[in-house]
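pasting for the record
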Amino acid sequence: MGRGRVQMKRIENKINRQVTFSKRKSGLVKKAHEISVLCDAEVALIIFSHRGKLFEYSTDSCMEKILERYESYCYSEGQLVSNNPNSQVNWTFDFAKQKAKLEMLQRNHRYYLGQDLETLSMKELQSLEQQIDTALKHIRSKKSQLLHESISELQKKERAMQEQNNMLTKKIREKEKAMAPAAQEVQWQKQNHQLVQAPAPPHDASNFFPPLALPALNPGSYEGVIPGEMRRNDLDLTLEPVYSCHLGCFTT
């Protein structure tokens, strides 16, 4: 039993629509690959799903090259059309086309800003939400990447500064260790210099005793005198006041 004819209309069932999209997309990509290989043709295929997801296929992965060739071809065709006597009509049509495109871009911009949403249906709102979610995912991914790169760069700078700090600390310690003997010798010389230049302590007047005056000895004055007589004369001189004191006491 053969497969029935498929009606060309929108599939209402969401699951069936998604399954059909996946199958038809794979078949379309397969056909594009076959025609590029069999016929040596440059093929570029661009598909946007109803959720706004992009699917593309290009010969030898040169999508940009094919698009540049397409734009160049369109520009050449436009130049040929401009040489036509009916160029005024073509310019008018091109102006209307560009104006409609500008209005569509401005309308989409307002939608992305959350303005003029009253005219959108539920399906259009869901599509807009999916597009915004996709854009937010790309933005957050790029933001996370930049933050990670910034943190990595700061960590590298921190490690470099730490290594430089350790190196400077090591050099300072080595220099202090080398200068320690010289500094100690200078300190000793300074202390010795202070001890040498220190003033003598002042004399205390209470502790000062004048030297005793000793009688001068004249050896020549005792010539011819008997030592015994010399001793007696000395005793008489010293004992005479004592005798006089005792005699006075007896008389009273």
